[in-house]
């Protein structure tokens, strides 16, 4: 009788035949084994439907930390099979010894009319139906520039800082300050314009505004 040695999930080495044989392994076992290996190695293998926010929450990390540790240039684009570094036990990187920076100025409180005017102007600049952008802002923040979400999304358009770090240089060709209401509106509306161009469908563009461009393109609306 030949002896077989388990090489990995679904792979056996047959000592008599000198061959690697692949056998069916229950999907749940495969995921469990893969998850265990990557977790012990300080890595996470991206699975279909994953988002940066979800991975960070599962591993008790901030989104900013996960983005920085993996040098993610566009956090909305992560791909199944991609390996992410997970530093669960790493202490936050200390700031260089220097005078403490001044705290960021609080976002201005705008009247509803002021907020809607700024969003409408941004919509006209980017060729987006103002009603569409206004509806997104109403749902996200009730047109409140001072709104900050539990995940760190900022302002009227509730843009995540890591998203702004991509939208600013790539779509607006400049850095943006999400606490500035004009920059906030410009960033959120520019992202909507980009997603409308990508999907040519306002429902899919809206889905991508929440769940990311890649996940929407591949899996549709969650």
Give an overview in words.
- The chain is mostly helical.
- The chain contains nine helices and five strands.
- The chain has a three-stranded antiparallel beta sheet with strand order 1-2-3, with no helix packed on it.
- A hairpin with a 2-residue loop joins strand 1 (4-8) and strand 2.
- Helix 7 packs across helix 8 (202-211).
Briefly summarize what is shown.
The protein has 222 residues and is mostly helical.
Q: What topology does this entry show?
A:
Blueprint: E1 4-8, E2 11-14, E3 19-22, H1 27-40, E4 43-45, H2 52-58, H3 63-69, E5 83-85, H4 112-126, H5 130-141, H6 161-172, H7 181-199, H8 202-211, H9 213-219
Antiparallel strand pairs: 1-2, 2-3, 4-5
Helix pairs in contact: 2-3, 4-5, 4-7, 6-7, 7-8, 8-9
Nearest-integer average pLDDT: 78
Shape: globular
State the total count of DSSP E strands: 5
Please list the strands of the largest sheet in the order they lie side by side: 1-2-3
- Estimated structural class: mainly alpha
Cα radius of gyration in angstroms: 22 Å
Low-confidence runs of at least 5 consecutive residues: 1-41, 91-97
What kind of sheet is the major sheet?
3 strands, antiparallel
Spatial separation of the terminal alpha carbons: 50 Å
String of helices and strands: EEEHEHHEHHHHHH
| Helix fraction bin | 40-55%
Please state roughly what percent of the residues sit in beta strands, choosing from under 5%, 5-15%, 15-25%, 25-35%, 35-45% or over 45%: 5-15%
How many helices? The count is 9
């Amino acid at each position: 009788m030949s002896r077989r040695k388990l090489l990995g999930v679904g792979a056996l080495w047959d000592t008599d035949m000198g061959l690697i044989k692949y056998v069916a392994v229950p999907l749940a076992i495969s995921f469990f084994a893969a998850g265990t290996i990557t977790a012990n190695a300080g890595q996470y293998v991206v699975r279909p439907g994953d988002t940066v926010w979800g991975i960070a929450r599962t591993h008790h990390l901030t989104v900013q930390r996960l983005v920085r540790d993996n040098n993610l240039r566009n956090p909305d684009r992560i791909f199944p099979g991609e390996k992410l570094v997970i530093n669960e036990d790493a202490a936050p990187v200390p700031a260089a010894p220097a005078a403490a920076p001044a705290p960021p100025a609080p976002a201005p409180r705008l009247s509803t009319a002021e907020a809607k005017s700024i969003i409408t102007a941004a919509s006209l600049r980017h060729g987006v139906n103002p009603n569409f952008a206004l509806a997104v802002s109403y749902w996200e923040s009730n047109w409140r520039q001072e709104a900050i979400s539990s995940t760190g999304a900022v302002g009227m358009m509730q843009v995540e800082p890591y998203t702004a770090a991509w939208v600013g240089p790539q779509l607006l060709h400049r850095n943006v300050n999400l606490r500035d209401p004009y920059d906030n509106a410009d960033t959120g509306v520019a992202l909507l314009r980009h997603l409308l161009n990508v999907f040519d469908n306002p429902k899919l563009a809206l889905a991508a505004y929440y769940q990311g461009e890649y996940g929407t393109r591949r899996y549709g609306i969650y």
